[in-house]
User: Which sequence fits this backbone?
């Protein structure tokens, strides 16, 4: 079953110890706007998939970040999200990976509830149907020579 969240409220996502972002829901409108972002469209055709992923993630984050906690400037003073600060944050590899895993990939994959098979009653072959006929005679063994 697909569960719809009709509230459309920003949610907190923990990306690293002490670092969390409040992100807007990953909606169709947000994805379409990100795809047509000038930074995404400016990526050259010969760019690698990784370069495209970084450009897309930064463009998406610039649209999606509503607020954050645990992020500061070089002096340790808390700063508010800004396009430059968001890009700098996603230049940190573990943060980029966490953003991709906790936000982007979960939004792109439809998570279905109860999407597994029920266990078989007495083991993996309990429900198997026999398709081969039993042998009529025992097989002959090879002679030792």
Assistant:
């Amino acid at each position: 079953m697909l569960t719809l969240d009709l509230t459309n409220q920003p949610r907190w996502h923990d990306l690293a110890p002490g670092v969390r972002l409040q992100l807007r829901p990953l909606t169709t409108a947000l994805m379409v706007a990100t795809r047509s972002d000038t930074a995404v469209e400016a990526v050259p055709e010969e760019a690698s998939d990784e370069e495209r992923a970084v450009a897309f993630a930064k463009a998406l984050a610039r649209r999606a970040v509503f607020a954050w906690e645990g992020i500061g400037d070089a002096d340790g003073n808390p700063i508010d999200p800004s396009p430059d600060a968001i890009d700098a944050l996603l230049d940190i590899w573990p943060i980029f990976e966490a953003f991709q895993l906790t936000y982007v990939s979960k939004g792109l994959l439809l998570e279905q509830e109860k999407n597994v098979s029920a266990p078989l009653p007495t083991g993996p072959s309990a429900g198997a149907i026999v398709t081969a006929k039993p042998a009529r005679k025992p097989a002959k063994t090879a002679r030792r020579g």
Remarks:
- The helical segments are 28-35, 38-41, 49-64, 83-90, 93-108.
- The chain has five helices and three strands.
- The chain has a mean pLDDT of 82.
